[in-house]
Predict the 3D structure of the following.
Amino acid sequence: MNEIALIGKKIGMTREFYKTGQLVPVTVLKMEKARVIQVIEQEKRGYKAVQLGYGKIKSSKLTKAMKGYFAKKNTEAKKLLKEFRVENTENFKEGNEFGLEIFKDTKFVDTRSKTIGKGFAGAMKRHNFGGLRATHGVSVSHRSHGSTGQRQDPGKVFKGKKMAGHMGDKLRTMQNIEIIKTDLENELLYLKGSIPGAKNSEILVKSSVKNINKLTIDEKIKAAEEAKKTPDKKKK
């Protein structure tokens, strides 16, 4: 089941307290149910996959082609369609819906989201340049990036040169983020720490790709409690 992903809306950040007095910052995501729109078989396309639809959209915003597609599939229109490769298509049927329950036994997830756009940024902000000197003949170019090219040969600016330009607004993946808790009733997912993206931005959440043996905070607290109990037995 965890080959598929859900899309959530970033609500903001808050914090969780544990009985040990530990404070953990968390990001709250409002998760949306994913509906199976199409099951793709090996015979037709050469691979097995499922197409999932997320979010609501007004029919007035759909193209005629998409209106026809959803009518043919006999399902309500979805804002976003995504395809996921799966090993087994038997678990999926058109019209099925998946929610937060797919992360029931999952401890860590990967997220993919767009970072906050910063617009056109200078070299000091964008690449952490030091800038030019504040005195000694430097005029009107204190925060500039200095020389970029050469003289006669090769006489051009190489591609990838660190210069001022568009900053942020890029897709970024965060791996191995711990699930602090899930609220199935309100469809909320609490993830440890911060996640790239502005409030109300779309976050794609899927099970962690890496197989990690990291302990969760709850497991650490349990281990610490058990460690406290054992020395008492030895004394007796």
